[in-house]
Design goal:
The protein is mainly beta and 143 residues long. 11% of the residues lie in helices and 37% in strands. It has two helices and twelve strands, in the order ααββββββββββββ. The strands form three sheets. Strands 3, 4, 6, 7, 9, 10 and 11 form a seven-stranded antiparallel β-sheet that branches. It has a three-stranded mixed β-sheet with strand order 5-2-12, with no helix packed on it. The model has no long low-confidence stretch (mean pLDDT 82).
Length: 143
């Protein structure tokens, strides 16, 4: 086998010494990654305008069920979200259409005292995250 090309790049010949470094270089960046994310902030209010004062908010992609952005609702009703996938986290969410769910922890106790997850109903059925500096949303909760 003619090893001149390998000698040129590796400087050592075509023995096993070049195989591992070359494989590592070729595999760098492989595997799934979070798509580019765009910042999201907003405010959660009850119908009528009173601020929601605690809980969590979830943005669920309408096109890719693996894409979920989650945030905490602060005492003033404000929130930001981040996307966690493949062992990493990015602020914001990828571009696209989302269904939004809000959870009020005070509503998660059943009459028998057991914990239940009960997402609240929001008035807007879809939110669109766009590739821009900041996506701002007002999320109105019906019940």
């Amino acid at each position: 086998m003619d090893c001149r090309l390998f000698k040129y790049f590796a400087g050592t010949g075509c023995g096993p010494a070049w195989v591992l470094p070359m494989a590592v270089l070729l595999m760098a960046g492989c595997g799934p990654q979070i798509p580019p994310c765009y910042p999201i902030k907003g405010n959660v209010v009850w119908r009528g305008g009173k601020n929601f004062t605690a809980g969590s908010i979830t943005f669920q992609s309408k096109t890719d069920q693996e894409i979920v952005a989650i945030g905490t609702i602060e005492k003033d009703g404000s929130f930001t979200v981040s996307t966690k996938m493949f062992g990493e986290s990015k602020d914001g969410a990828p571009e696209g259409e989302y269904t939004v769910m809000v959870e009020d922890p005070s509503k998660n106790v059943a009459p028998d005292g057991q914990m239940q997850i009960k997402p609240m109903v929001v008035t807007t059925s879809s939110f669109k995250v766009e590739p821009k500096e900041m996506n701002e949303f007002k999320v109105e909760v019906v019940q």
